[in-house]
C-alpha cells in the first residue's frame, strides 16, 4: 500500500517503453543500428527499403546495372520556403526540391555551357532566336507541352502584377518593358510560329541572351483563369505543382517532407526509382541519419566531410563548386544615385601592401583547418571549374611567403619606427588593419577570421578583428560604412559567366569600389556581340585577360574555392555530379 | 467574480498596446531587414530589392509603418510573410496543430511525472527515494533543452532506432487514417517527452513541499485521530489542497502549449510555431515575427487571467470580489 504511487510510476515508465518498443519494431524492422563496429556487408544499410515492387532477378549482384523500383530518401538541411514554382521561388532549397520535377528548355554541361533539353534553338545574329520544342513531351497532368506554355511563363514574369524576382530574365526581350508597364497586351518580341516553334527577338544582340532568358515553361491550360497576383499563394505553387520532369509531386507536408512519384511517361525514359522522399532535417542530425541509413542522400557541410568519408555505408561525393571566398579592400565610396565611385580611400591604395598581405596568408593551412581540405586555393575571381576561368599558368600565384611579405612592406615604407613590434605607415603613423567578418551562430567563423589576422600580425601588420552581425554585415559593406576597411566575403557565380554585376565600376555590388578602365572595357567587350560574335574562345580570351588584371591589381585577395560535398549511401547507384549539379534523377537507382 | 474578471480584461488593453509597441520596435531595432544578405547576382539584382523595399513600405517614416501595421492587425490582417510569401494567418494555422499536439502531450507527460513523483516524495519526505527524485528533477531542470534534444536524438533515434529524429508525420501514410494519427503521435513523442521532462521539476517540488506542509496541518491530525486511512488522507484531503498552487501554473502552460518550444522544435525539425518564430527571427520576417510575438504575449496575459480566475474557483477562501 505504501509504495502504491511509486509502483504506479514504474508501471507508467514500463508502459511507455513497451509502447516505444512496439513502435520501433513496426518502423525499422530488422535494422541493426550502427554502434561503431558495423561491418559493411551485413546489409543493414538497405533494411529500411520498404519497396515491394518486383525485382528482376538480379538479386545477388550489387552490380552497376540499373534496377527498377525502390524508394530513395533525399534530405536537405535547411528549411524550404515552399514556393514550388520556378517563376517565383527565391531560395536554392526550393530549387533543389523542384529539381526532381521540372525541366528547362536547356541544361548545362560539365563546363556550364548550355545544351538543348526541352528545346533546340537556332540563331544567326544572337538577336533573334528560333526555338524548336521537343514534340510529345507531356506535363504531369497529361497535357502536352507546347510553346504557348513557355510564352505564358515569359508573360507571367513580365506582368505588372508579378511579385517574384525574375523580371530581369525577360526584360531583354523586345517589347517586354512595354508589357511590364502595362502599355501592351503581349510581348512584341515573341512570335509563335507553330505549337512547337517560336521566334524570340531580343532588344539587342548579346552573347548571353540565351542563358539569360527564362527557360522554364508554365502549363498555360492549368493556370487559366488564375490572375498573376494570386499565383504566388496558389495551391499550384504551394502543394500541387507540376512539371515535365522525371518525378511527379505526390503528397506535401509543407516545410517538412515532399513525396515524389516516378513519372512513367517521362520523355527521356521512365525513372528507375518508384519514389523519392525529400525530407528536411536539422544539420546536427546529418551525420547520424547518413550513418543509420535513414537518409540516402544529403548535402554535407565540408566540416563534416571527414566524418562521412569514414562511414562504411556511405560515399562522400565531391564535385567542384562555383563559389569562392575572398578578402576585399575598400578602395573607395560608391554613390548609388550617380552610379559611380565618388571618393577614393587611400589606406589600402598601395599595391605592395595588398600583395604583402596576400603573401602573408598560408592558404593551404587555412583551408585544411577550416574546410577540412574540401577546397583549393584560387588566384582569381572565377572558380576553376567554369569554362571562362583563366588557365592556372596565366595567373600569378601568391604563395605563403612571410619573408617576401616583409620585404614588400619594407619597400613600400611600412616599417616599425617606434619599436612596438608592429609596422607604422610610410608617414610614421600607427597603422592598424581593421578586418571585418560576419558573425552568426557558426562557431568556426570567428576562429577562421582570427587565423587570418594572425597571419598579418606575424608579418608585423597590427590587425584588429571585428565580427559583425550577419544581417548587418553586407548592408554596411554595401553602404561603404566607415568601419569597413578589409572585409571577408563570398561570391558564387552562375552559369552565365558575365561577372559585370560584381566587378564593373558602376555597379553597387562591386564592393571593393575598384575602378579600372581596362577591366570595364574588357567586361563590356566580352559580352559585346560586335567584338566576340558567337565565338566562345574569343570570349574566354577576353575574360582571361580580365582575370589577369584582377589578379595583378588585387582589389581582393582570393582565398579559396569550395568543393561541394554530398553524402550518398552505397546502396544508391547511377548518381553522378559535376559542376552543374547532379545528373538527371531518372537515372538513379537502388542497388539490389 | 464577474466584476473582477471584467476589470482584469479591461486592464489588458493598455498592456496590449504597450506590447504592440514593443513588438514593433524590437523588430525594427534588428539591424537590416528581410532583404539583408540577399545579395546574389545570379538570383536577383539591386533594383529588384530596392523596388520591393519601396513596395513593402520599409522606406516610409516609422510612425506611419507602425500605425499601418496596428490598424491592419486589429482588423485581422496580419500581413504577408516575407519569407514564405503567404499570409501570416495561413502560416500560423498550418503550424498550430503541430504545436498544440506537442504542447498537450508535453503537458500530459509533465503531469504524469510530476504527480507520481511529487505525491510519492511528499508522502515519504527525507527518504532516499525522495532525495533521488529531488536530485533527478534538478538534474532535468539543469539540462538545457538543446543538449537534451541532441542527446535524445543520438540515443533513441540513432543508437536504438526507437523514434524518428525529424518531422511531424510520415509522409507515406494516408492523411486522416488511424495510422496517420499514430504516426503524428509517434513523431511528437520524443520532443514532447523532452519538453515535458524539463517542466517536471517545478511541479514536483511544489507538490512535494505543499504535501509536506499540509500533512502537518491540524485537519490532517484530526482526520488521523478519527482513524481515516492514510491513503485517503493523502489522496483526497491533502491532494485537493496541494493542487491549488499547481493550478496557477496552468495559465502559463497554455502559453507553453502554443508558444511551443523554440529550441526543441528546431532540433527535431518539428514544424510548429516555435520553429517558425526562430526562422522568422533569422530571416527578419517582420510580419510573422511581430504577429507571433504579439500572440505569445497575449497568451501570457490570457494565461494569467485564467490562472487568477481558476484560483478563485479552486479555493473559495481566496475568491476576490
Automatic annotation (TrEMBL), chain A:
Q: Does the keyword Signal apply?
A: yes
The record's region (Disordered) falls at 26-73
Record GO biological process: peptide transport
Give yes or no: UniProt keyword Coiled coil: no
Q: Which domain of life is it from?
A: Bacteria
Select a single GO molecular function from the record's annotations and give it: peptide transmembrane transporter activity
Q: Where is the composition biased (Acidic residues)?
A: 46-63
Query: One Pfam annotation, family name?
Result: SBP_bac_5
Keyword terms, alphabetized: Signal, Transport
Gene Ontology cellular-component terms for this entry are: ATP-binding cassette (ABC) transporter complex; periplasmic space
Q: List each copy of the Solute-binding protein family domain by range.
A: 115-503
Q: Where is the signal peptide?
A: 1-22
Q: Output the NCBIfam families linked to this UniProt entry.
A: Opp4A
Q: Which family does it belong to?
A: Belongs to the bacterial solute-binding protein 5 family.
Q: What is this protein called?
A: Peptide ABC transporter substrate-binding protein
Automatic annotation (TrEMBL), chain B:
Domain (ABC transmembrane type-1): residue spans on this chain: 96-307
What is the topology of this protein in the membrane according to its UniProt annotation? Multi-pass membrane protein
Which residues span the membrane?
100-120, 132-156, 185-207, 243-268, 288-314
Origin, by domain of life? Bacteria
Localization of this protein: Cell membrane
Listed InterPro entries: BPD_transp_1_N (IPR045621), MetI-like (IPR000515), MetI-like_sf (IPR035906)
Its keywords, alphabetically, are: Cell membrane, Membrane, Transmembrane, Transmembrane helix, Transport
* Pfam families associated with the record: BPD_transp_1, BPD_transp_1_N
GO terms in the biological process aspect are: transmembrane transport
Q: Which GO terms describe its cellular component?
A: plasma membrane
Family statement: Belongs to the binding-protein-dependent transport system permease family.
Question: Any idea what this protein is called?
Answer: Peptide ABC transporter permease
